[in-house]
Specification:
Largest interface: A-B, 28 and 27 residues
Structural class of chain A: alpha/beta
Distance between the termini of chain B: 13 Å
Strand content of chain B: 5-15%
Helix content of chain A: 25-40%
Number of strands of chain A: 16
CATH architecture of the largest domain in chain A: Alpha-Beta Barrel
Bound molecules: iron/sulfur cluster
CATH topology of the largest domain in chain A: TIM Barrel
Order of helices and strands of chain A: EEEEEHEEEHEHEHEHHEHEHHHEEEH
Number of strands of chain B: 14
Oligomer: heterodimer
Distance between the termini of chain A: 24 Å
Shape of chain A: globular
Strand order of the largest sheet of chain A: 1-5-4-3-2-6-7
Number of domains of chain A: 2
CATH class of the largest domain in chain B: Alpha Beta
Largest sheet of chain A: 7 strands, mixed, barrel
CATH superfamily of the largest domain in chain B: Aldolase class I
């Protein structure tokens, strides 16, 4: 696993954002340049003074946009530069949420610590051609700040795109004009929908009336011509309701750019409720296959996230995306002879090893 | 039953009766709701998604990004049904002048699009590589560009090969079936046929099958056995066969006067051909043959917006997203219109490349370029999938003032959609296998169309 936070000591009295640089050639004012490196760590100097970072060689940090806390604390690697074809990183804008999903991977907290100004600064420093994910909590609880941040960054950086994960509970018709603006051509909204049955969806997200509210939210996104990626996490409770959901998608949600059916992540609440929630798709792929066929039949691009390739029947394998980010992805020893590793999502770092190892069939 | 959104279902006899008597059961209502036919009036999403689905059925041509260019009318072959009334190899005055080339390049400079598609037609366009290259050079500024050279592949020298080796250049040619058929229709000599087939193989070997597409033209009075044609295509590695009967216009009309409309015989042949494809696809599942146009229509039924087929859409505006620029700089709305003018039937040109084509002629043609208001089409279940082609009507009947159902365009599509729904509701696993592949599905669903019993 690649660490996203490292211990640090900084001279600054306030937290600040900077981009770490090993070489001086390309420096601009927001950069901190490497001045010393030894076995304990690396020290960088910039307009906010010195910061010493331990736990990583300096070269691995080159180009990273980091948030440095004051004094003794840590650096958060907000935007890692290293080696991806499309640099992809995720910014967490709040830990508050108005839903409480059964399987939440990042259980919400009560308090909100506003960092929009710093995150905006960071996003402006993103690598060329970056795709920046925004997540929470629920980002649209702070809709005004969120949209301001998106617009500021996109107006300044024509090469950057955003992907925002939102529960879709807070869009109003009054937002249509703003969301229809040209800048939003570079924003995709990832919106979860777990079942066509309101009661089942509400139970999964832990909020009464959520399904109805979501319908209105989706109506706003539709009217604004927004790009929407619909997301459905697979659970034992919604597995058999997938067929009805597929029909709902092809009749009501034809405007979505993609429908992602996602396998569960063994972390957060899902970890505690694993036995109750997890659905082993390799035991019965039928309902998933039927949903994928139905969606594609009617021209909706359906895809699979977090499905290791060898666990998917061959005709559907090309729909399984390498969806797990490098920093939290692992392969098990049984994967080593596999020819499909490059295209495979692998497993979440925290996925139970015995389950993973017994399930793989190298391709 | 088909909604304006194109979403359809089959009603069994009992259900038809209940609907006619307005005696729907709660199960019927639930079915209709879930299928999206009765949007809930209080749901913003249901109302808007219904409008969205209806809008998806309309074509939305808005800016010019597709040019069909005829740099020369001269040709080194004389095919029995040549549609463009070619000019002889040595004739003069049948190529773009300096001024025409300059005007074409000016037009390209003025395009407000990020991507462009250019098709070079003829005559034999490779006789004027210099003109082709000048156009390609001028298209460098586009983010994406695609060039298709429609050639008879008689001549494949170093310069032509250099052009074809570009990644953004594709080759389109005619292949009428086995060598004998091709010879009879086109080349007239076996050396020329051998030359053509040799060049075709060379291209496929060197650049892969994706580089080349081939189209047959079939004489409906003596069509080849389906297997002969399929084998000829399969032998070269082609899976897609566009089964077109001879188009009666142009030069061809003089030689084949009886080809104005296709009769039941042709339609039976077409169906036999499709059934043969289905059988072959089932026996050997490692390849999937398709009839190109049937697949286009099939995808229009299920997957609106997945096809940009300018011959089947509604509205079908002329001179908007694509135009044809002839060898003398005259601008036509379609290639068919160009042939009509060449053969002296009717001049449907809409302008010139120098002076533009936002002309009264274009507006007149445009006025009826939709099936939305046509009384016959409004009654027709297939309206959301179908299109409108005023040029075709004028070509065949000299007028567009006809009941739609008495036109070849209508009869052809009525037959195609009838066939499609027969296939969609077939219980035969072989049929469902082929239909699913033609629709590019990952698997083969047990049910392609729903039924209300
Ligand atoms: S063996 Fe491992 S790498 Fe290969 S497909 Fe399975 S999980 Fe992926
Ligand atoms: S099949 Fe004929 S009547 Fe039906 S929509 Fe097409 S042209 Fe109109």
């Amino acid at each position: 696993m690649i660490p996203l936070a490292l211990q640090s000591i900084s001279e600054a009295e306030q937290p600040f954002v900077t981009r770490l640089r090993v070489a001086t050639g390309t420096a601009d004012a927001a950069d901190s340049i490497l001045v010393a490196e030894d076995i304990d760590g690396a020290t960088f100097a910039g307009r906010n003074g010195l910061v010493s970072i331990s736990g990583s060689p300096a070269a691995a940090l080159d180009g990273d946009v980091v948030l440095v806390s004051s004094g003794v604390g840590r650096v958060e690697r907000l935007l890692r530069a290293g080696g991806l074809e499309i640099p992809t990183n995720t910014l967490l804008v709040t830990e508050r949420c108005d839903q409480l999903c059964l399987m939440c991977s990042q259980p919400p907290k009560k308090t909100h610590h506003d960092r929009f100004a710093l995150l905006t600064e960071a996003a402006l420093l993103a690598e060329p051609g970056s795709l920046i994910g925004i997540t929470g909590g629920e980002p649209t609880l702070y809709k005004a700040q969120l949209l301001d941040m998106i617009e500021t960054v996109l107006a300044a950086r024509s090469d950057v795109e955003f992907h925002v994960l939102t529960n879709g509970q807070h869009f109003e018709d009054a937002d249509v004009a703003r969301l229809a603006g040209a800048l939003y051509d570079r924003v995709t909204w990832g919106v979860p929908l777990y079942a066509r049955q309101a009661a089942l969806h509400d139970r999964i997200v832990g909020k009464k009336g959520a399904f109805d509210r979501l319908q209105d939210g989706l109506a706003v996104l539709l009217s604004a011509g927004c790009r929407v990626e619909l997301r459905t996490v697979l659970l034992s409770s919604n597995f058999t309701a997938l067929g009805e959901l597929a029909r709902y998608v092809t009749t009501r949600l034809r405007f979505v750019e993609a429908w992602s059916i996602m396998q569960l992540e063994n972390v957060g609440y899902a970890r505690k409720r694993w036995q109750e929630l997890y659905l082993d798709h390799s035991a019965d792929f039928g309902p998933i296959a039927a949903a994928l066929d139905h969606a594609h039949l009617h021209g909706v691009e359906a895809q699979l996230f977090n499905f290791p390739l060898c666990t998917v029947p061959a005709p559907y394998r090309h729909l399984a995306r390498p969806s797990i980010s490098d920093w939290k992805r692992k392969f098990v020893p049984e994967c080593s002879p596999c020819a499909a590793r490059e295209r495979c999502c692998g497993f979440f770092e925290w996925h139970p090893d015995d389950e993973a190892r017994s399930g793989v069939r190298p391709l | 039953m088909v909604a304006d959104t194109g979403r359809f279902f089959r009603a069994g006899p009992a259900a038809r009766d209940r609907i006619a008597r307005e005696a729907c059961t709660p199960e019927d209502i639930l079915f209709l709701k879930e299928e999206g036919h009765v949007p809930h009036p209080c749901s913003r999403l249901e109302r808007r998604s219904r409008q969205f689905a209806e809008a998806e059925r309309l074509s939305w041509a808005n800016r010019l990004d597709y040019l069909i260019l005829v740099p020369t009318l001269r040709c080194n072959l004389s095919c029995s049904y040549c549609q463009v009334s070619r000019a002889s190899l040595t004739s003069t005055g049948h190529d773009w002048s300096e001024a025409t080339l300059a005007a074409v390049l000016d037009r390209i400079d003025g395009l407000e699009t990020k991507s462009i598609k250019v098709e070079f037609q003829g005559g034999e366009p490779t006789l004027r590589l210099d003109l082709i290259n000048a156009v390609i050079e001028r298209c460098r500024r586009f983010e994406r560009s695609e060039f298709v050279v429609c050639t008879n592949l008689q001549r494949l020298d170093e310069d032509v090969l250099a052009l074809f080796s570009r990644d953004d250049v594709y080759v389109s040619t005619s292949l009428d079936g086995a060598a004998a058929t091709h010879l009879r229709n086109r080349t007239a000599s076996s050396t020329a046929t051998e030359q053509f087939l040799g060049n075709l193989r060379l291209l496929i070997d060197r650049f892969g099958i994706g580089k080349v597409s081939a189209l047959p033209t079939v004489d409906p009075r003596s069509p080849p056995e389906p297997d002969e044609l399929i084998d000829a295509y399969a032998g070269l590695g082609f899976n897609s066969i566009f089964l077109r009967p001879i188009n009666f216009q142009g030069f061809a009309r003089k030689r084949h006067p009886d080809s104005r409309e296709q009769n039941g015989e042709w339609r039976r042949y077409y169906e036999r051909f499709v059934r043969r494809l289905i059988e072959r696809n089932w026996v050997d599942r490692s390849v999937v043959f398709e009839e190109t146009y049937l697949s286009v229509c099939l995808r229009r039924v299920f997957q609106p917006g997945s096809e940009r087929h300018v011959d089947l859409r509604s509205p079908n505006p002329v001179g908007v997203d694509y135009v044809v620029i002839d060898h003398d700089g005259t601008v036509y709305p379609t290639d068919e219109a160009r042939m009509l003018a060449r053969s002296g039937i009717i001049d449907l040109s809409i302008g010139t490349v120098e002076t533009g084509w936002d002309t009264p002629a274009r507006q007149t043609l445009d006025r009826h370029s939709t099936n939305a208001m046509d009384p016959a089409c409004r009654q027709c279940a297939y309206q959301p999938y179908c299109g409108r082609d005023v040029i075709d009507d004028i070509a065949r009947y000299g007028t567009i003032d006809l009941p739609r159902t008495e036109t070849e365009f209508c009869r052809k599509h009525m037959h195609l959609f009838d066939l499609i729904f027969e296939l969609v509701y077939s219980d035969d696993p072989a049929v469902r296998h082929s239909v699913s592949r033609w629709l590019r599905l990952p698997g083969t669903p047990t049910e392609l169309g729903v039924t209300l019993p």
